[in-house]
Amino acid sequence: MSEKAELKPFVVVLSLKPAARLPAKLGTLTLNFAEPDGLKQVFVTKIEDNVKGTVIQTGLRFRVSLSAENIRKAIDSAKALTDGIVSFLTMMTGRGMDIPKEEIAYELTPEAKEREFLQVFYDPPVILPSRRQVDPHRLIDFIDRQLKLQPLFSERVARAIRWYRLGAMVTDIFDQFNCFWIGLEALNPLLQQKLSAKDDPVVCPKCGHKWVGTPTVSGIRSFIQDKMKEGKLVYQKIRGLRIDIMHSRMKLQELQPLVSEYAPKTGEVLFRAICYVSGFDEWETIPHGAILKEFPLRGELQCLLIGGDPSSLGVDGEDPHFQLIHDFKELKSNEDGSVTYTVSTSLTAKIGPNVQFRPQEIRLYGDSETKGAILSKTVRTADGKETPV
Predict the structure, then answer these.
(1) 127, β-bridge pairs
(2) Which of these, 67, 44, 11, lies nearest to 313 by C-alpha position?
(3) Cys staple from 100: which of 13, 14, 321, 370, with CB 3.0 to 4.6 Å?
């Protein structure tokens, strides 16, 4: 039996903009959570902007103190906790809000010589050109087909298309899956009619009498199993996920790997089903672009903080952090509509006088159609010395 990993104290700072307001006279809202892995404290403060001499609340900042095995698990735990708090805020106010974004996380072990540190940057210079070129002939054909559908068909297809669009917009994979499944349910009666699939009957165990108790998803099942590649497996998986998610049969973290794999497949099934009921003969081969997420490009800096003590890792009572400055060097628009640019980025350490840092990794994240590379990295110390890394 393996030993349980040692837990270390961390601070994770997250922000949310826009958000609900806290009372003007309230400085900090403190929330305590006694959990199996120790006490978790969340300090909620206002993010305020000064607009022409008027201070306006524009968001909330969450400072979470907790214990975890490593910095990644600390961030995941803090995000889950603050996401739950924001859900309660929405319940109290009716103000829908996003999931708080992690900004800084660092270790607070008192006697440690080296402490884990990670900072996320959401404001790198990003040029977001319009992508995925539209085929005007296909668009006109698609709209024309919808206009010629019978009212029963056209209304349900319109609903399915709207659910597909919503699924393509949301960033949470569970919400995405739910949107795609609801879109399929909108098409279910149409699929039943086109595939001659009747509702599944209920059989009395005593007399064998059969009757239809409630409408079933026999149209969805028949379309996936009979028309889609590996249809029986795909239907089994997404039907099971639908039940597990909608009826809360399993924890979301246990379902996450399966949803990550099958939410995109459910989206393609919905796309193909829309094309099928719309009367496209080539519904199986119409190009289906994978759902394109406009995730903002973000960067991560991970390093070790060396020396100092937990109360003096930053300067002037602030959290230790790095200040980011960008300078565009080259920008070019390509014939295919893409944009290529080169930028120089400077990171200035804002850490205590007795604290040093050792870089570990710099990472860039974007969506699947964003490409990039770090061309060179150099560390410049206060005395002007430069060291390539």
Answers:
(1) none
(2) 11
(3) 14
What are the CA-CA distances from residue 362 to residues 15, 220, 373 (Å)? 21, 45, 11
Please confirm whether the linkage preceding 36 is cis (ω < 30° from 0): no
In terms of Cβ atoms closer than 10 Å to its own Cβ (0-12, 13-18, 19+), residue 109 is middle
pLDDT at residue 46 in the model: 93
Domain borders along the chain are 8-127+294-388, 136-277
Which DSSP category does 24 fall into? T
Residue 242 exposed, middle or buried by CB count within 10 Å (0-12, 13-18, 19+): buried
| Cβ neighbours of 115 (radius 10 Å) | 25
What's this model's pTM, rounded to 2 decimal places? 0.75
Q: Tell me: the pLDDT tens digits for 338-349? A: 777 777 778 888
Distance from C-alpha of 165 to C-alpha of 184, rounded to nearest angstrom: 13
Q: Which residue has the tokens 């570990």?
A: 360
